[in-house]
Amino acid sequence: MDNVIGLEIIEVVEQAAIASARWMGKGEKNTADEVAVEAMRERMNKIHMRGRIVIGEGERDEAPMLYIGEEVGICTQADAKNFCNPEELVEIDIAVDPCEGTNLVAYGQNGSMAVLAISEKGGLLAAPDVYMKKLAAPAVAKNHVDINKSATENLKIISDCMERAVEELVVVVMDRPRHKDLINEIRQAGARVRLISDGDVSAAISCAFAGTNIHALMGIGAAPEGVISAAAMRALGGHFQGQLIYDPAVVKTGLIGESKEDNMARLKEMGIEDPDKVYNAEDLASGETVLFAACGITPGTLMQGVRFFPHGARTQSLVISSQSKTARFVDTVHMFGDSKTIQLR
Ligand code: VTB
Fold first, then answer.
1. 114 CA distance to ligand 1 centroid (A)?
2. Under a CB-based contact definition with an 8 Å cutoff, are residues 15 and 99 in contact?
3. Residue 21 Cα to ligand 1 middle (Å)
4. Which atom of ligand 1 is the closest one to the Cα of 104?
5. Which candidate among 15, 78, 293, 306 keeps its CA 20 to 30 Å from the CA of 267?
């Protein structure tokens, strides 16, 4: 995939993060999301590419922008033939979450980001909007831990692989009633739990970076976010597994359809033959090339949040490429007005 896209997607997530950060702490999660969507779409449509949204804001009627199936990029526009050669262009699939953690932004809490993943056509699982049981762990524990094992067993494995006591491990779990038993089990096993209200993409990816003091993500979050996390984890070599959860009785929160049976029928319609399949990072992000980009909206474990100053802002992003085998932290100063009058910081 073109290196240029790698550079341009940094701006896509930066623009979304800046737009959303203006709504930080305002208590309006829908607006924080809408402005991020709009900014992301506007910048994306300036990229010389033929892109298709495979994970987005929802189906067309409920999401006017960045809906699943929407085509994005200069080369999908009506007059594209004037400046794009269709034969030369690779078609790419894009998974977006312009404001991952809308509540976090609305209430000024840590851990929100603008995020997307890109691969060639068919390279990302078009995950339906159901839930996903997830297990993320550091690269040393990859393929040793297993989502089918108990939390106790997996903690013992991570402890052996990392050569540290279970007591020295920190597990991130979303603070939800459905995780009551899981939380008890982790504590019983001796590890420490970090409960988060939202934003499990950041938690998953943090497992792949030493120094974050996050050694595992366990529990059930949303499926689309699982695919985005897998894209990053695949390129980073970290462990990630996901299993779709479609039974409302298990999830306890969230609206995921009328009943387990309805959800199963919907998954089948979407081409998912085995709804209980355990996917690993390579299944969820199977493309030859996978690119991931995120920009902090509020401060997080991996990135700082957007900081505004008169006529400018500073952002921090993370761009991961499976092709160049790089994870780049990009620190950017954005100049909004006449640069001569700006005191850069
Ligand atoms: C999950 C999680 C996301 O929202 O989707 C969560 O994966 C919603 O979970 O990171 P509930 O429906 O149980 O409340 C996030 O935290 C933010 O989008």
1. 14
2. no
3. 19
4. 17
5. 293
What integer pLDDT is reported at residue 235 of this predicted model? 96
Domain boundaries, given as residue ranges, for the chain: 2-121+289-335, 131-284
Report whether CATH 3.30.750.44 matches the domain 131-284: no
Closest C-alpha residue for ligand 1 atom 13: 253
Q: In which residue are the tokens 């100049």 written?
A: 335
Close Cβ partners of 278 (under 8 Å, ≥ 6 residues apart): 147, 148, 241, 242, 243
Q: 2-121+289-335: CATH homologous superfamily?
A: Fructose-1,6-Bisphosphatase, subunit A, domain 1 (3.30.540.10)
Tokens coding 14:
């930066």
Q: For residue 143, is pLDDT > 80?
A: yes
Residue 342 scores a pLDDT above 80: no
Is the CB of 111 within 6 Å of ligand 1?
no
Is the beta carbon of 225 within 6 A of some atom in ligand 1? Answer: yes
**CA 36/CA 19 separation, integer angstroms:** 6
Tokens representing 21 are 């950060």
Which protein residue has the closest C-alpha to ligand 1 atom 3? 199
- The Å distance, Cα 168 to ligand 1 centre, comes to 27
CA of 197 relative to ligand 1 center, distance in Å:
8
Query: With 80 as the cut, is the pLDDT of residue 239 above it?
Result: yes
pLDDT recorded at residue 30 = 96
Q: In this predicted model, what pLDDT tens digit does every residue of 242-292 receive, in sequence order?
A: 999 999 999 987 666 678 998 899 899 888 999 999 999 999 999 999 999
Rounded distance between C-alpha atoms, residue 133 and residue 102, angstroms: 21
Give the whole-angstrom CA distance, residue 269 versus residue 267.
Answer: 5
